[in-house]
Design goal:
160 residues; alpha+beta; four-stranded mixed beta sheet; elongated
């Protein structure tokens, strides 16, 4: 992962490994300018288009991946097997000119500010956010699944 602690990130701070067996959820964020205005030349972007927003998760952010190499490596591990990801080498990463994301102090909110400085470069700002579900929620889901299995067994036994 590139970022694990609360704060603002304007460049790749380095890598942190996820301990084996860590239960997590993965969210993939893709930001790109779609359909540049008709008055642009050869698809060049208007000066300084801004993509900004925030996402609040139900569970704490374990880390954020924004570097191209780590995005490429993480696709097969935590990505959706049914999704197509740009194969390496690719121009997918987060840190271009003036890009910043911030992890809130409670580690629940990710705020994103991306400026794609007027160019026609084929960059797409991409992030993968990893969150850790609370053990109580995982336990509750497990108990719910167990209850469904037991209900089905009881219903099947009653028919016989």
């Amino acid at each position: 992962m590139d970022a694990t602690d609360p704060g603002a990130y304007t460049s790749d701070p380095g890598n942190t490994a996820i301990p084996a067996g860590t239960l997590l959820d993965s969210f993939f964020i893709h930001m790109d300018v779609i359909d540049p205005p008709a008055n642009t030349v050869h698809g060049a972007l208007p000066p300084d288009p801004l993509t900004a927003g925030s996402i609040t998760f139900d569970f704490p952010i374990l880390g954020v991946i924004g570097a191209a190499a780590l995005l490429d490596l993480s696709d097969s591990v935590v990505g959706d097997p049914g999704s197509y990801y740009t194969p390496p080498p690719s121009a997918r990463e987060f840190w271009e000119t003036n890009d910043v994301f911030t992890i809130s102090s409670d580690k629940l909110t990710l705020t994103i500010d991306c400026i794609q400085v007027g160019s026609s470069l084929p960059y797409a700002d991409q992030l993968r956010v990893l969150v850790v579900p609370e053990p109580g929620s995982v336990l509750l889901l497990g108990l719910g699944a167990l209850g469904l299995v037991l209900y089905r067994k009881r219903k099947t036994a009653a028919r016989e």
